[in-house]
Design a protein that fits this description.
Blueprint: H1 12-30, H2 36-50, H3 69-84, H4 98-117, H5 124-132, H6 139-154, H7 160-179, H8 184-196, H9 200-213, H10 218-231, H11 234-247, H12 252-264, H13 268-281, H14 286-298, H15 302-319
Helix pairs in contact: 1-2, 2-3, 5-6, 6-7, 7-8, 8-9, 9-10, 10-11, 10-12, 11-12, 12-13, 12-14, 13-14, 14-15
Length: 320
């Protein structure tokens, strides 16, 4: 979406496609007794294409050549029958048949195109950068290109180059959300990149838009909590961290951050419960172990907290 735009019955291409399909169906009916191999190929093509055509029922996926792999096999059988006249070739005769040379030319050109395409597969960033020029209207492609740009920025130290990459990613995300205003992931990612640029207001606006479009956007809820905590709005931070854990009960960072705020506000029992929930999914998470140990110590149970602190120290040493 939306490199190949959706069209309605008023578009000539729709009627042209329908006409071709009706002609193929008519051919299958007309030659069902005399050219059964061709008819089989046409019926195979029609039956497998109908599964992905979004006509009889919606499958909710993007356009893609993978959806034509099975239909093209039936089409190839039908074409092969027509080109050979329905006759079995004599041994060795295929070498002189014009279809053979046509196939060789097609395979040769396809091989050259494949080789020419290989550099684009160096890595994800190169692939998306190459294809965004070919499919500039695809919001999904542009979104993933922005993700790769953001990842490249994250690997750089603070400085002008990092800032420039983040700003480039934000521009692409703005294009995505302008063309597809319900793309909540793009709003959430835009919030993250704005935060990394130091623009807390824009970051919060992105997270709020993402969560309004998708209340199950756990990462956006959690990232909102970070900003609220920085502002000292701990009640709001607790609220959104709880929403994050409700949206994704296995979200370790959200449980950890929730526990940190609870401990900060003196609610140690609830904090320990949050850390314990996080450790259910990541028992060797050093940050969680340290916070659990500190919460137990500060709540008057140092003997229970010390083993967690010791384990965190051992894990830190082993990771050096």
């Amino acid at each position: 979406w939306n490199q190949i735009p959706l069209t309605g019955w008023g578009a000539p291409g729709v009627w042209g496609s329908l006409l071709v399909l009706l002609l193929l169906l008519a051919a299958a009916i007309r030659f069902r007794h005399t050219r059964r191999q061709m008819v089989f190929g046409l019926l195979w093509m029609g039956a497998t294409f109908s599964l992905a055509a979004n006509v009889f029922f919606l499958i909710g996926t993007s356009y893609g050549e993978r959806l034509l792999f099975l239909p093209s096999a039936g089409f190839a059988l039908a074409v092969a029958f027509v080109l050979t006249g329905g006759r079995d070739l004599q041994p060795g005769a295929w070498r002189k048949h014009p279809v053979t040379w046509g196939v060789l030319v097609a395979v040769g050109l396809g091989s050259l195109l494949t080789i020419w395409r290989l550099p684009a597969w160096k890595d994800s960033y190169t692939l998306y950068r190459t294809d965004i020029g070919r499919s500039p209207e695809s919001v999904k492609l542009r979104y993933h290109y922005a993700l790769e740009t953001g990842k490249a920025a994250a690997e750089l130290p603070q400085g002008p180059e990092r800032q420039a990459l983040l700003q480039e990613a934000l521009r692409d995300l703005d294009t995505v959300t302008r063309r597809h205003p319900v793309y909540w992931e793009a709003f959430s990612t835009a919030g993250l990149y704005a935060y990394r640029l130091g623009d807390r207001e824009r970051a919060m606006a992105g997270y709020e838009q993402a969560t309004s479009l998708n209340p199950s956007a756990a990462i956006a809820w959690s990232n909102m909590g970070i900003i609220y905590a920085e502002r000292g709005q701990l009640d709001k931070a607790l609220e959104v961290y709880r929403k994050a854990t409700e949206a994704d009960p296995r979200f370790v960072d959200a449980w950890t951050n929730l526990g940190a705020i609870l401990a900060q506000t003196g609610q140690f029992e609830e904090a320990i419960a949050a850390f314990r929930e996080a450790m259910t999914y990541e028992p060797d998470n050093i940050r969680v172990l340290k916070m659990m140990g500190a919460a137990l110590r500060d709540s008057g149970h140092p003997e229970e907290g010390q083993p967690h602190l010791d384990k965190a120290a051992r894990l830190e040493r082993s990771h050096r």
